[in-house]
Amino acid sequence: MKWQASLKKWREDRNIGKQSHEVFTSMIAEELQEYQVAVTNDDWHEQVDAICDQIVLTTNHLAHYPDREDLKKSLDTLLTLDLPNLGIVPDLAMKQCLKEISSRVQDPVQAEDWKVNGPSGKWQKDRNQDPSTLYKADYKLAKA
Q1: Phi-psi bin for 122: left (phi > 0), alpha (psi -120 to 50), beta?
Q2: How far is the C-alpha of 137 from the C-alpha of 12, rounded, in Å?
Q3: To the nearest whole percent, how much of the chain has pLDDT over 90?
């Protein structure tokens, strides 16, 4: 899948390294909560976004833990059931997702810390980034 190569480059460009299972679990829990809120609010776009974020997190974690069969199964479910059940072509959705996350800039305090001490924890986006420089995924372009 082409998006996986793009995600690998994105990860390398941002110096995102191996994360603990605890950090991964915490981030996945956050995305699952966002998904549940989106379902409750009948917000199709946010449902797709939360699933795509789970795909990003799971793929990144699998890059460092390739023998995790549970993660492989989760990723397969997200790609072959969850997105298609929402009427989405996974490759097109991931293209949109990657375009959005690639438009983000790292928090400058964290970026400086990572230069000095090496990467650790969750990559933090710059909350003060100029909104005009951010891309918002258009998942309608990923409809089947």
Answers
A1: beta
A2: 21
A3: 83
Asked whether the CA dihedral 14, 53, 48, 133 is positive or negative, the reply is: negative
Query: Is the pLDDT assigned to residue 23 strictly greater than 80?
Result: yes
* HEC assignment per residue over 10-71: HHHHCCCCCCCHHHHHHHHHHHHHHHHHHHHCCCHHHHHHHHHHHHHHHHHHHHHCCCCHHH
Secondary structure class of 83 (helix, strand, coil): helix
Helix-then-strand count for the chain, H and E: 7, 0
Report how far apart the first and last C-alpha atoms of the chain are (Å, whole number).
17
How do residues 73-112 score in pLDDT, each as one tens digit?
A: 999 999 999 999 999 999 999 999 999 999 999 999 999 9
In sign, the C-alpha dihedral spanning 86, 89, 90, 93 is negative
Query: Can you read off the two tokens belonging to residue 64?
Result: 């460092």
pTM, full prediction: 0.92
Mean pLDDT of 117-144: 94
Burial of 19 (0-12, 13-18, 19+ CB in 10 A): buried
